[in-house]
Write a structure and sequence with these properties.
Layout: E1 6-12, H1 19-34, E2 39-46, E3 54-60, H2 63-69, H3 73-81, E4 91-95
Antiparallel strand pairs: 1-3, 1-4, 2-3
Helix pairs in contact: 1-3
Length: 103
């Protein structure tokens, strides 16, 4: 059976002066997202080489689980607030596990 897990990295760069608001908004996504049935892991990082940038590294049980995540109330509130904080569009890369200890 094929591996249905969905791995992704998302990066977000806040407008200057919006770093703290961005950190609060992103941090508020972690606990409710991790509590979703389809979440395997959902981790937030702050970049050490790009000032103010944040990265999510996520794994979902399937595309359906990721789609369900995007319909959750906390995700919708996040998407409503996000545009006012972003310096550039959110970047997302989908990954295929080759050799991973995470998930």
């Amino acid at each position: 059976m094929a591996d249905e897990r969905v791995f992704l990295i998302a990066w977000l760069k806040p407008k200057p002066g919006k770093e703290d608001e961005m950190a609060e908004l992103l941090g508020g996504m972690c606990a409710p997202s991790r509590a979703e049935e389809g979440c395997i892991f959902y981790n937030l990082y702050r970049s050490t080489d790009e000032a103010g940038a944040f990265h999510f590294i996520e794994c979902w049980k399937s595309q359906a689980a990721l789609d369900a995540h995007r319909e959750e109330p906390h995700y919708k509130v996040f998407r409503e607030k996000l545009p006012d904080l972003l310096a550039e569009p959110v970047g997302v890369k989908f990954l295929e596990a080759v050799d991973s200890t995470m998930g």
